[in-house]
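quick one, two chains, predict together pls
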Amino acid sequence: MLQVRGLTRLYDQLVAVEDLSFSVAPGEVLGLVGPNGAGKTTTLRSLCGVIRPTRGTIEIGGVDLGRDPVRAKGQIAFMPDEPHLFDYLTVEEHLRFTARLYKAAGAEARIPALLAELELSEKASALPTELSRGMRQKLVIACGLIHDPKALVFDEPLTGLDPAGIRRMKQTIVDRARQGAAVLLSSHLLHLVEEICTRVLILQRGRMVAIGTIPEILAGRPDLQGKSLEDIFLDLTGGAG
Amino acid sequence: MISAALYLSRRSWANSLRARLLRLRQPKYMVAFSAGVFYLWVMFLRPGGAVSALSLLAPESRETVAMVFLTGLLLANWTFNTNETPFPFTLAETQFLFAAPLTRRQVLLFKIFRSQMALLTSAVITVFLFRRGTWSLATPIQALGLWLAYAVVNLNNAGMGLLRLSLAQHGVAGLRRRIGTLTVLAGLVGAIWWVGRAQVPVIGVAFGESWRSGFAALSQALHTGGGAVLSWPLRAVVDPFLARSPHELVTALPAGLLVFGLHVWWVVGSSIAFEESATDHAQRTAKRIAALRAGRGWTEPRGSRSRPLTSAALNPAGTAAGAIVWKNRLGIKREFTVRSLVLVGVATAFGVMSLRGQRLSTAELLGAFLLFGAAMVTLLGPLALRFDLRRDLEMLEVLKTYPVRGRTVVMGEIGALLLVLTLVAGGLTTAAFLLTLPEHSLPPLGDRFAILVTALAGIPAVIAVFLLVQNTSVLLFPAWITVGPQRAVGLEATGQRLILTIGSLLALVVALVPAALLFVLVMVVTEALVGGPWSVALGAVAGAGAVGGECWLAIQLLGGVYDRMDPASAGIPSS
């Protein structure tokens, strides 16, 4: 569903991401981890068409993002860690607006269900300034789900959520993957990655240092057998983080 | 405490200067900096430029003028100042100082001391600029005097703010707590009334004779008898600024410093809990700055009590451009306040007042009012309302994730304001036409209808060109208009604004040239066929058509720019 080949992004002389290749299949949850400045956010923003790669190709559902960005973007949803919302649109209006931009079929019926799923029904006519950070985050997720995307990209999805919200968010991510979506999740919360991701990609200084399930990664490093993802991560990234 | 304030001021200044100097390595900042220096030189430092109004006055009159000005400033502060807090702390100051093991008095001293550094810098720069860059013995004397005046006004404002806060926090109990301040104020008011009851009629009569004699009477009242006693604090504050020699300064300074010291004692002696209001204010200010840095105006968030205005729900099926138009139209509707309407009304009324010499019927006067309003909406609306890319570019990271082509985004962004402003200005013009239908003193009805057609064709064309120029600037120079944490301030910012204004005006002229040529051509060709007013109307329709074509072309080009735009390279803050 998500296919990345040779992704490279330079900022002047700075190499943010270098020759990164990976894929995420339908139903899979790939965890993207790495220390600060490893290139995670650049990777996510490239995948969603926010920034253009310096080199490399990205395919979403078989559509080349560089060649046909409109069709490719229509199949993906990006949920950033910092909820950016339009100050003057209410919760429900955000969903209607997003549905129209994504040409989401059957959105009229999906809106109440999504509001209920993310516990926003009572806030349907509230402006973002009246919402807590957690609720704003939920609204971003709701907007991302309105067009039933085939690929979902989450950047620190649990930021600002209360314990109940965290449990529901994890369930939402797992449910979407079970329904056949390809999920890419970036987080510093290694226990979250360990809990819900089927594979892990570890980035450091823009380069991939490991990818696979935890047993697959350990197979290449017998010295790390029996250790937690946190220990593996710190070892592979030289303790940075 | 003072050493900590000094350290903070010194390091903040040094780091800020270093950051600005480093930024000058980028050509765009260097060019803007050069433009800013040029502007400063032309406006303030060029030899032979304008001289300050105060220096034109006779020395004995300067003191009176300065005292009157200071009184007006203090009265305005007392009457109209509704600041949320007496001390505008920054968010960082609230986080570090309020949590530190410091007494309230120490925090206040810290703040007062830091303020003095900023006020002194401001005074030095002001004096340097207004002395047109010349440096003499009078420069530091004037700067010191101006700092004293700034400081007293600043402290007076803070003291009155504390008084207001005390009354707001404690009600009647607040009156008891502030009994000292209130007694002094009441005594002052009583004394002014006592002295003024004899002097004011005399001054009034003198002003009735001439400005000169009125001013002389006022000056005498302020310098003799009870007036001299009451105005002593004012004189003490302005005299150091008006000093022309070290001797005059040394003579005037003790009294000024005494007034300053009394103000410090008054403010620091306060036991009002200002922390909550200061923190609240700091948070609002931080949001306001973030909004301004993002290139949009600041509006207070609506509380839960005021529900957002309802609007027709957007049908999820339809065009993407239509959705963006709907979104921005909703924004305009929700942020257009009654105050905006009153401001437009007042400005329009002033415009209509220029017609007061004419003998106009009520309908004609109302028609003129509506036409002035339409003109203001057409010419100022595209600049004042920023519900297009000027506002939405801060959401570029979100917009770029949408499966929508750049040209569609640009069309939708410009479309909303074009639609709303055209409807309002066109509606006002049409209303003026209908209102004056029965008026026989005006040109014939056919001619008036031709003028209406001209206006209805011209209004959207003018608005579209204005909006296009504004949005082109945003897309081509996003870091200069939609600014993130690296926002240029100081001379670069002045230079950027200067360059952008000149560029926008040039673009406006260039954009209007094809339309104007077509307008003239059609008008000349059709004049013999349909006569004066209708040839103008046909020319306007043709010109509007040309603008429409230009807009279509520009939207295609700008769409490409948007598609290639990278938030990081464009200097737009990332999420």
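The beta strands of chain A are 2-11, 14-24, 29-33, 55-60, 63-64, 76-79, 151-155, 182-186, 199-204, 207-212.
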